[in-house]
Amino acid sequence: MKKFLFVLSFQFLTTLCFGQIKVDSTQKLKEITVKAYLSESKLFNLPSTVTVIGKTQIQQNQNTSLVPVLNSVAGVKMEERSPGSYRLSIRGSLLRSPFGVRNVKVYFDGLPLTDASGNTYLNLIDQQSISNIEILKGPDGSLFGANSGGVVLINSQGTENETNINASAGGYGFFRENIHLQKNYDKYQYSFHQAYQYADGYRNHSLMKRSYFQTQQKFQYNPKAELKFSGFYSDLGYQTPGGLTASQLAANPQQSRPAIPANPPRQRTPSAEEQKAGIYNQTFFGGITHQYQFNKNWQHSISFSGMDVDFENPFITNYEKRKEVSLAIRTFVSYQNTVSKLLKYNWNLGYEYQHTNSQIRNYDNNRGEIGDVQAADLIKNESQFLFTRLKLDLGERLSTEISTSLNFANYDFEALPESQNSSGFGTVKLNPELMPRLAVSYMANKALILRGIISRGYSTPTKDEIRASDATINPNLQAENGWNYELGLRTRTPFERIYLDISAFYYRLNNAIVRRVAANEQDFYVNAGGTNQKGMEIELNSNLLKNNASFFKQIDFNTAITLNDFKFRDYVLGENNFSGNLLTGIPKTAFTNALNVNLQQKITLFVQHQYNAKTSLNDAETIFAKSYQLLDAKLSWQKLLKNYALTFHFGANNILNADYSLGNDLNAFGGRYFNPAAKRNFVGGLSLRI
């Protein structure tokens, strides 16, 4: 079966690339636009490596999580060790993310969701509330500051008047419902989104539930100006079953981490269930944006946003509580001018400031109850950057972008009064860092665009790395930095029925931050020297057929291929030399194929196939997660009535019943690497659109 699926995907790719499939050339694919660079730009001509995920693509999947959606993008790897526990990587290692999202800058409706320390709670957001996602791959500090992996821009504001009510249920106790309301008037637009999701999980002690409420309000109070509010409240809780050893995995993959019997001089270690291990996060996030268009050339935007986080993490060895408050301001001016047919330019100048206060307390964990204080610290993170960007269009063929940001970061730490094991106090001020970027695209002809990019990446350590679960401040941890070199091309058929994007890059990273686990099972982080990250990404989108009169009204096929050669360059830890080893947590090969078929009677079939090669789970390159293939499918039928549309859907996940994990623990102490994912399961539901 595995060989058959590989051959099938290869045949699809070669057939499409060499034009052996006949299509109706009277139809065109819709031109994709990108708003990431502070103005609308056509994706095909953009001198950047960008992928846009639309609302239709998000809704095609089972709507249980964002994982299959983001894993359909070349160069992107999203993991979910248990329901709700996300990790995200763009062209890089997951070493820094035992949970959460780091090393990637994330914005929600133009507001920074990533806090001042570089940490992002992506799992707070309900996947059905998203209108589209723009993913900028590779270091892009020109407008977004410190990052070495890339940028994710999440947009929730829709454009259609609609009311949607959705409900679905499936295997392993899955249940989800949401209500979405969007109204657009002449000068005022608003939307409300409510959602609740629950799942028992495949493994013991892996229950997840999330309540979510989101709203956007936009008011154009005069022809040149508009005011917009965007915000959400999320109450997320999920149990963490913990990693298993190979023998435990073979004995019972559905078990949570068992207790370890007493073995002098070690005492007994309780199980994940005994300690009620889990994550509980209640967050308010919101911000106001004001935009003013002075004239056809000048525009100004300013936004104020904030986030309030109550976070609890009962763990095997301690019970952590965090109170985090973040504030941000972002402002920029834009000037654009068309001098002549041979010269058009766009200039941006801006500033972003963020501040995060984190009160972090660690207690003894007495079977899920708070015990005595182990440590208590206050960390104040501050990050800010100035940015500027100049984009020149020289005629119709040549486009050049020159940009940079000047980044500042520092943090203060001090012991809180109740601390019993003070880490001391002090200030760490990182050196100001420039992140320049030069990008050029050239139109060889109307069907072929070539591009080249040189950019510098820079990523500061997050508060969870400065003060990891060992509750010790590490002021010596340095920021990652490096240079990225990239070549790419985009091509399309004359009628835009087939669209192909290829990029090849080399990212030379210094001071790579990696996670280590001590003998007492506490996390800490070190700089591992450098890494060499070479890769190629291929994305193919095609409309094979569009004929409303035929039984098959429309057939679309997409494929995304990721080829990685990521290795440690100079990584010596004590007596161990890991130089030349594969970068932990990143497979050398991954690809996703998706087929969407629209039939008569408004019946739609969506099938997605994903392959993930074997993955090194420790820096020594001695333990691997085996390769796996996933096959998911969803069948939908829509019934149109007088004033509404009713849609029924039924889907299956992991149809091949593969043994796999969506996210293993890296460099795990005691050999507890494995987090097995759910076997074959089914989901069904309905939605009402008014």
From TrEMBL:
Record's keyword annotation contains Signal: yes
Entry annotated with the keyword Signal: yes
Family indicated by similarity: Belongs to the TonB-dependent receptor family.
Localisation per UniProt entry: Cell outer membrane
Regions of compositional bias (Polar residues) in chain numbering: 245-257
Residue ranges occupied by any TonB-dependent receptor plug domain in the UniProt entry: 44-151
Membrane-topology descriptor: Multi-pass membrane protein
Protein name as catalogued: TonB-dependent receptor
